[in-house]
Structures are given as structure tokens and as C-alpha cells.
Design goal:
single chain; about 120 residues; mainly alpha; about 60% helix; about 0% strand; Cyt_c-like_dom_sf
Length: about 120
């Protein structure tokens, strides 16, 4: 009877260890994805937009990326628009076209910096 309990405890331990290792790998991959997204935005957008969690946009007409509405980032079409060529109604903003992987990294980073929703 005692051997059975030991086997069960070992199985639980291995399961918890496996889950912990997988979670750590996932968190590391997510952080790397967000870093690459931030790097792209730094190169392409930081001349006009604040791309971090703080700071003002260099161009006062360009919204800081941390203030994007959640609906914009979670919109099912947003990723596709980034891939098709995202453009703005603002005439001085260039059109950017991302491949699928780059678009996913940009969106992952943008989601990570959003300000908390303000109570209504």
C-alpha cells in the first residue's frame, strides 16, 4: 500500500514539474516575442509615437501606443490589416506591411503595454 502512495506522489510531482517547466518556457517565448515586436516599433514608429508604457509621443498628433483601445488590438481583423498594409487617415503616416510572424509580435507587444481601462 505504501509503495502505491509513493508512486502516486512521484507522478504528481513529475506532473507539477512538467507544468512548471512548460509555463516557464511559454513565458520566456512570450517575452522574446514582445521584445521583437517592440524592436520593430522602435525602428518604424518611435519617430512619431510613444511606443512604451510611459512618455509622450514626439509628434503631439500621434497617439501613444499604450492608449490603443482593447477592441482595436483584439479585433479579429487587426492582424490581417497589419499584413495587408496598415495605413492611417493621417497623410504623413506611411503604410506598413508586416508578415504574419512580425504582425503577431507587434500585437503581442502592443497588448502588453496597454493602460488599464478607466472606469466609466
Amino acid at each position: 500500500m505504501r509503495q502505491n502512495g509513493g508512486k502516486t506522489a512521484m507522478k504528481r510531482f513529475l506532473l507539477i514539474l512538467t507544468i512548471g517547466l512548460l509555463w516557464n518556457a511559454f513565458a520566456h517565448a512570450r517575452a522574446e516575442e514582445q521584445r521583437r515586436g517592440k524592436d520593430m516599433l522602435q525602428k518604424l514608429c518611435a519617430g512619431c509615437h510613444a511606443i512604451g508604457r510611459t512618455g509622450a509621443s514626439p509628434n503631439r498628433l500621434a497617439p501613444p501606443f499604450r492608449s490603443f483601445s482593447e477592441t482595436k488590438l483584439y479585433d479579429s481583423d487587426f492582424l490581417q490589416r497589419l499584413q495587408d498594409g496598415y495605413s492611417s487617415i493621417h497623410p504623413s503616416m506611411p503604410t506598413f506591411r508586416f508578415n504574419k510572424e512580425d504582425a503577431e509580435e507587434v500585437v503581442s507587444y502592443l497588448k502588453s503595454i496597454q493602460e488599464p481601462s478607466k472606469p466609466k
